[in-house]
């Protein structure tokens, strides 16, 4: 049996009471809250009413609250992120290499003009 995994992505503040009622019917109260419902026409219709506010995935089995929390929990420890360690360093190296090629080409052209 398939299940809808429904996550409230956008807040319902300022929306009509009817829209907030649909979210309440789905069991969604807070942003980033996840609920599971069986795949059926009833829940599909409710999802279509609030499709701009929710993210929906079809999964094989519903997860328990502990499993959902475990998915969201980061790994222990910390990460040191450096902009120079990633793609920025490669971009800088590519730009420096291109500039060196241009300087070399310009030098060759200048030397040829001097000889003439």
Describe the protein's topology.
Blueprint: E1 3-8, H1 17-26, E2 34-38, H2 41-49, E3 54-59, H3 65-72, H4 87-115
Antiparallel strand pairs: 1-2, 1-3
Helix pairs in contact: 1-2
Give the CA-CA distance, first to last residue: 83 Å
Number of strands: 3
Mean pLDDT: 85
Strand content: 5-15%
One letter per element, helices H and strands E, the order comes to: EHEHEHH
Count of helix runs: 4
CATH structural architecture of the largest domain = 2-Layer Sandwich
Main pleated sheet: 3 strands, antiparallel
The helix content is: 40-55%
Question: Uncertain runs with pLDDT below 50, 5 residues or more?
Answer: none
How many domains make up the 3D coordinates? 2
Derived structural class: alpha+beta
The third-level CATH topology of the largest domain is Ribosomal Protein L30, Chain: A
Major sheet strand order: 2-1-3
Shape: elongated
Give a short overview.
The protein is an alpha+beta fold and 116 residues long. It has helices spanning 17-26, 41-49, 65-72, 87-115; strands at 3-8, 34-38, 54-59.
């Amino acid at each position: 049996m398939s299940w809808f995994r429904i996550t409230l992505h956008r807040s319902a503040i300022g929306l009509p009471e009817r829209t907030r009622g649909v979210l309440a019917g789905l069991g969604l109260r807070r942003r980033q809250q996840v609920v599971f419902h069986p795949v059926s026409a009833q829940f599909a219709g409710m999802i279509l009413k609030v499709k701009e506010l929710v993210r929906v995935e079809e999964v094989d089995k519903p997860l328990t609250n502990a499993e959902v929390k475990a998915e969201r929990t980061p790994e222990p420890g910390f990460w040191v992120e450096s902009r120079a360690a990633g793609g920025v360093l490669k971009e800088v190296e590519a730009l420096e290499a291109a500039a060196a090629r241009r300087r070399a080409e310009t030098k060759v052209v200048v030397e040829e003009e001097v000889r003439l």
